[in-house]
Amino acid sequence: MTHAVAPSSRSFDHHLSPSLFGLSEVALRRLDPSACLRRALLEETPPRGRAEEVLLAWLIALPPGIDPAEAAGHLAPGAPEGGMHPEIERLLGLLKEVARYPAARLSRRRARG
Fold this sequence. Notes:
The protein is an all-alpha fold. The protein is about 60% helix and about 0% strand. Helix 4 (about 50-60) packs across helix 6 (about 85-100) and helix 5 (about 70-75) packs across helix 6 (about 85-100).
């Protein structure tokens, strides 16, 4: 009986970066520090609800001082499009939605409301 061996995080990161989003490896590690978005893009058949789980995990993993909308704005345009599992397409749609609400825009809303 053979056992599958999980790749080390080093080889995993090398395999996933930087071409998935068209960014440098340094930028990608800064904008997706836990690699959860990169991992999700490689899932062949993610379970229903996976998009929300991955988005939340990504938001939690972002370092302090990084505006999620700005990070999403860098990641979303470079993400592959079409031919993906519907749940992954949903994740990319959610990422684009996050990009629409930078901190400055949210601050203006609070000031008016």
